[in-house]
Amino acid sequence: MPGARENPLRLGVLVSGTGSNLQAILDAVATGSLAAQVTVVISNRPGVQALERARGAGVSALTIPHKDFPSREAFDRALVAALREANVEWIVLAGFMRVLTPEFLDAYAGRIINIHPALLPSFPGVDAAKQALDYGVKITGCSVHFVELGVDQGKIIAQRAVPVEAEDDVATLNARIHAAEHELLVSVLRDIAAGRVVPLVSGV
What domains can you pick out in the chain, each with its CATH number? Predict the structure, then answer.
């Protein structure tokens, strides 16, 4: 099969919180439904649940606090060094609450993806479910996209729709969006591992 790989896809996952999307990846790897290996998980915040999820799966879990660095660029250089040490091929932002600089984007150009809880370009940034409810849309969802400069910018790889129910509040809508995110993110990673999604070439 064209583009098929001989070895598992080597992933680095960046996190800032509970890590439910990370868990979806780890579960898919553990069951053999995703031909990948999470080689390192890095959080910019100490003590988050995502780090415990990584350790529970036997994955290297690092904390690199952004507050320890004098600039965003210096923090990103530290991230890149740790990811290179782990021999990572692709980067997954799974609830990583930092905007990356060109320092990072250039190091892994075209091989960084993000999961966002809305149908981009609608409702970028934080509190996407609340934005959807406030706006009154009947359908929202989630998007996996390549990461470029800016917040939730970049070419969309795949999306999944989630209906907004009349009785929804932020918690119930978020729960359904998260369930869709878990499935969509793993599906996209399967496509990357199989060569159906290839690194994004700038300008294409």
Answer: 9-193 (3.40.50.170)
